[in-house]
C-alpha cells in the first residue's frame, strides 16, 4: 500500500463514488443512512483489497476514505432529490435520465480512447 496521493486522485475517488451512494441508498433505503455508508465503505474496501491482490493500481487507506466520502455525498444527493420529487417513481426516473446524460459523453470518451490508442 502506498502512502502518497495527489489532489486529482482524491477528487476523482470522491466523484466516482457519488453514483454508488445514490444507487445504494435508492435500492437499500430501508436501511438507515449510516448503514448504507458502512456498505459503501465495505465495497470500497473490497475494491482496494482486489487492487492489492491483483497488483492493479495502488491500494491506500486514503482511497477508502475518499470513496466513502463520495458515496456519502451521493446519499445526500439522493435525499435532496427525494425531497424535491417526493414520489419514488419520479426520483428513479430523474436518476435514470441523469445517469443516461452522464453516460453518453463517458461512452464517447471511452470509444475515442480505444480508437486513438
From TrEMBL:
A Pfam entry, by short name: VanZ
Every VanZ-like domain range: 8-81
Residues making up the signal peptide according to the UniProt record: none
Annotated keywords: Membrane, Transmembrane, Transmembrane helix
Claim: Membrane is one of the keywords in the record: yes
InterPro entries in the cross-refs: Teicoplanin_resist-assoc, VanZ-like
Residues passing through the membrane, by range: 6-25, 37-58, 64-81, 93-116
Name of the protein in question: VanZ family protein
Taxonomic classification: Bacteria, Bacillati, Bacillota, Clostridia, Eubacteriales
Amino acid at each position: 500500500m502506498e502512502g502518497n496521493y495527489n489532489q486529482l486522485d482524491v477528487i476523482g475517488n470522491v466523484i466516482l463514488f457519488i453514483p454508488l451512494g445514490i444507487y445504494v441508498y435508492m435500492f437499500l433505503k430501508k436501511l438507515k443512512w449510516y448503514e448504507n455508508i458502512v456498505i459503501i465503505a465495505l465495497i470500497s474496501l473490497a475494491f482496494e483489497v482486489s487492487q492489492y491482490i491483483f497488483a492493479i493500481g495502488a491500494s491506500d487507506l486514503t482511497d477508502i476514505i475518499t470513496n466513502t466520502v463520495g458515496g456519502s455525498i451521493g446519499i445526500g444527493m439522493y435525499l435532496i432529490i427525494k425531497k424535491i420529487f417526493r414520489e419514488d417513481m419520479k426520483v428513479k426516473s430523474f436518476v435514470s435520465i441523469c445517469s443516461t446524460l452522464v453516460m453518453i459523453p463517458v461512452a464517447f470518451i471511452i470509444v475515442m480512447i480505444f480508437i486513438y490508442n
